[in-house]
C-alpha cells in the first residue's frame, strides 16, 4: 500500500521562481489496484509521480511505500525497486544500445546474477510482446515499440507498483492503443498496482478509481462513472470527456433512453 | 531520417566467425600489441609475414575484402604522401638513381617509401579487423575491463564507460533531431552552407543552440529515468553480458605474441 499523507511540494522554495506544485494531498493506494490520475497541464500530476518513488521528497507530509518513508535515504533503493516509473518520452529513458541491454539495465543495478537477468528479459519481452526485437537498437523502433521497451525495462525489475507518467502522449493512435492494452494486461494478468497519469480521459475508463488533480489539489475522486458524470466540472478543470461519453451525453439530453455516462465504444454500440 | 541511415554505428559487420566470437579484450590487446610491434620490426622480409598474418585474419573473419579496402579510403592521401616524401626526398643511401636539386631518388629512399606505406596500411588493416568484428558496445565494455586497474588511482572507470555507452547510444537520436531542426529552420527561410565562412558558421547557430538545449533536457530526463531504475554507479552492480576469457582467448594471445617475437628474432 502507498500512503500519501498531507503532502505539499514547492519547486525552488524561497526564491522568486517559487512555484507550489502540490497542496495537502492525502491518498491511499491499495495493492493491487488500478488508479488513474487525470489533470490538465500544470496540475501537479507529474510532480506526484516523482514523489512516489522518491525522485522528489515532499517538504511537508510523508509518502510511505509499504511502510518505508521516502525520506529514509538508506531505504530509497528498496522503494525504487518496488515502484517502477515509466516516463513520457521513450527516447530519453532508454539507456541500452539494444533492447535486451536496456531491459538488463535495471536488473544489473539490482545486482542480479546474469542467469536470472536472462530469465527476466525473456519474461519482460513476452509481457510487452517484443520478443522478435530483442537484438534491435532503439533507433530502429517506432515510438510505441520504444515505450514498450521502456515498460519492459521497468517490469523486469519486478516492481509491485508501476507509475506511468503520460506514457502515450508522444505516441500515434496505434501506439497509444498498444500501450493501453499492455497496461490493462499488467493489471489483470500480472496483478501489478497501476498508477496511470494522463490527460486523455479515454485512457481513464479502465481504471478502478480516478483522481482529478487541479492546480495542485485533489478536487474529485471516484470510479469512472462517477467522475464522467461531472461533465461541467471536468471542463472547468481543463479536461475533456471521452468521445463516447460525449455522444452518450448528447443523446441522453435529447431524450434518448440510455444510461449516462457510457464509457466504452462497445457499450455505446450495444445500447444503440 | 536520411542523415540517420547514412550513419553507420561503428563499422561492425555481424557474423559468426572465430574473430567475432573472440572476447573483445583479447582483440584489443592483440591489436595494440601488433601495432606497437610493427614499429619494432626491422625493415626486411618480416613484413611479408605480417602481411600473411593479416590476410589470415581477414580470411577467418569471413568479412569481404572490399570492406578492408574501404577502410583504407580515408588514409589514401596519407599513404600517397608518405610514398612521395620518401621516394623523392629520401635519405642518402645506396645507389642514387636520379638527382635534380633537392629531389633525389635513392635506393634507401625507395625502400623506406615501400616500408613506410606498408606500415600505414598494416595499422589500418589491423584496426579494421578489430572494429569490423567487434560491436561498439563490446568495445566499450572491454575498455572498462581493461581500464579497471586504473580504479586504484581513483579513475572513475565505470562512470567513464557508462558515459561512452550513453554517448554512442544517443548519436542516432541527436542526429535525427539535428535533421528535424535543420528542416524546421529551412522552413522558416534559413539558408545553410552559403556565403562566406563567417556567415556559414553564423548560420549554424540556429541549429546548435536548440540542439544543445534539447540535449540538456534529455540528459535531465535520462538521469531521472536511470535513478528510478536504481542506478547508483558501479556500487552493487552486476553485468548481464559477463566477460568471458576462456582458453580460446589465452591461446589466441599466446599465438600472436609468439608469432611476433619469433619474427623479431628471425629477421
Q: What does the model show?
A:
The complex is a heterodimer of chains A (272) and B (267). Helix content of chain A is 38%, strand content 23%. Chain A is of the alpha/beta class. Chain A has 2 domains: 238 residues, 3-Layer(aba) Sandwich (Rossmann fold), CATH 3.40.50; 31 residues, no CATH class. In chain A, the strands form 2 sheets. In chain A, strands 6-7-8-3-9-10 form a 6-stranded mixed beta sheet, sandwiched between helices. A 4-stranded antiparallel beta sheet of chain A has the order 2-1-4-5, covered by helices on one side. The model of chain A has no long low-confidence stretch (mean pLDDT 90). Chain B is mainly alpha-helical. Chain B folds into 2 domains: 150 residues, no CATH class; 75 residues, no CATH class. In chain B, strands 1-2 form a two-stranded antiparallel ribbon. In chain B, a hairpin with a 2-residue loop joins strand 1 and strand 2. The longest helix of chain B is centred in the C-terminal third of the chain and has 32 residues. Chains A and B meet through helix 2, helix 3, helix 4 and helix 5 of A and helix 9 and helix 10 of B.
Radius of gyration of chain A: 19 Å
- How can the largest sheet of chain B be summarized? 2 strands, antiparallel
Oligomerization? heterodimer
Question: What is the rounded distance between the termini of chain B?
Answer: 54 Å
How many β strands of chain A by DSSP?
A: 10
Topology:
The complex is a heterodimer of chains A (272) and B (267).
Chain A: E1 2-11, E2 19-29, E3 34-39, H1 45-52, E4 60-65, E5 68-69, H2 76-82, E6 83-86, H3 99-109, H4 114-127, H5 143-155, E7 161-165, H6 173-188, E8 193-198, H7 201-204, E9 209-214, E10 217-222, H8 224-228, H9 231-236, H10 243-253, H11 265-271
Parallel strand pairs in A: 3-8, 3-9, 6-7, 7-8
Antiparallel strand pairs in A: 1-2, 1-4, 4-5, 9-10
Helix pairs in contact in A: 3-4, 3-5, 4-5, 5-6
Chain B: H1 2-6, H2 18-21, H3 24-40, H4 46-61, H5 65-72, H6 76-88, E1 96-100, E2 103-106, H7 107-133, H8 136-147, H9 157-187, H10 197-228, H11 247-266
Antiparallel strand pairs in B: 1-2
Helix pairs in contact in B: 3-7, 3-11, 4-7, 5-7, 6-7, 8-9, 9-10
